[in-house]
Amino acid sequence: MKLADLQFDFPEELIATSPVRPTRVMWVEPSQVPVEITIPELLQKIPAGDVLVVNNTKVLKRRVFSEENIEILFLDRVEQKANSNLWKVLFPSKKYKIGDELKLPQGFTMKLVEKGRPQIVEVFPAISDLDFATIAELPLPPYIQKARQERHNVEADESWYQTAWASQAGSMAAPTASLHFNRQDLQSLASRGVHVIELTLHVGLGTFLPVTAEDLSQHQMHSEQYEISEDSWLKIQKAKQESSKVWALGTTTTRVLESVSRTGVLAGSTDILLQEGSEFQIVDRLLTNFHQPESTLLALVAGFSSLDRVKESYKWAIQHKFRLFSYGDLSVWLK
Q1: Domains of the chain with CATH codes
Q2: E-assigned strands of 93-231?
Q3: Nearest residue to 39 (alpha-carbon basis) of 189, 159, 249, 180
Q4: 174 contact partners, CB below 8 Å, separation of at least 6
Q5: Average pLDDT of 283-293?
Q6: Is residue 136 within 8 Å of residue 62, measured between CB atoms?
Q7: Predicted local distance difference test score (pLDDT) of residue 220
Q8: pTM
Q9: Neighbouring-strand partners of residue 86
């Protein structure tokens, strides 16, 4: 698959800068024109015996603004020292040299140790999650900041950008398909005999870096940590054996399920890239947001459906003014 295959045009005003309820849902069956349905109608389409798999990751507050108003995204701690610690970060470092320092809030200092993507920095004194809780913001996608013409979060993002069942802290971005649902929705499904299963995938660096390889097969996916319990995996296997359907809520969930089906490893890291030609062994129904052009997320949807089907359906959605991307509307794809 070529990067150019994943290009499409859209009006900027369709970029959602906040959630709108009720959510609109584009329902896409093979060889059919997409139709619009509601969330309650979607829930009714999931029958007893089927499995809905959700991601319970929780987004970390890791976006920090320096006193120079430079935006820094803290990714992973590399090393802990007595009075400092080393971190992988992303920030616009072009004009900075090794050894240059930036002042952070509450008296912290960040020194550039190594350039690249990501960069390595040393923070004095050592910074912790408790510190990030007071000086950092949630790492909203840059296109939301641009569309808002505001770099900082609004107060409501604290609840808007976490799922209702977020419990396992560690993600750099929200599994945004889940933002359309609440715990009552899951309880309603469970009461009707739908098996609701949680897994964890912490979204990492890859979600922030653009695809630069013209041929997608040459793109190096960054690995992300995941975990699913043995009991949950056995329930999914049983459902498949009984010809029940597996509904994956989001691309993150899909990547875990398809990784485990290939490796048998229930907890670890995955750098799986799903695109046209990929075999989806577990997922039968994909619930996901509308994704940016030239993204691996869009490639995954094209792999699950087809590139032509995705382009036709996105064109239909744009004509019908569906709201796009992380705070936008939902699409559902049937294999």
Answers
A1: 3-59+155-334 (3.40.1780.10), 63-137 (2.40.10)
A2: 101-103, 109-114, 119-124, 168-171, 195-201, 224-227
A3: 180
A4: 59, 161, 162, 163, 166, 203, 326
A5: 97
A6: yes
A7: 84
A8: 0.95
A9: 79, 122
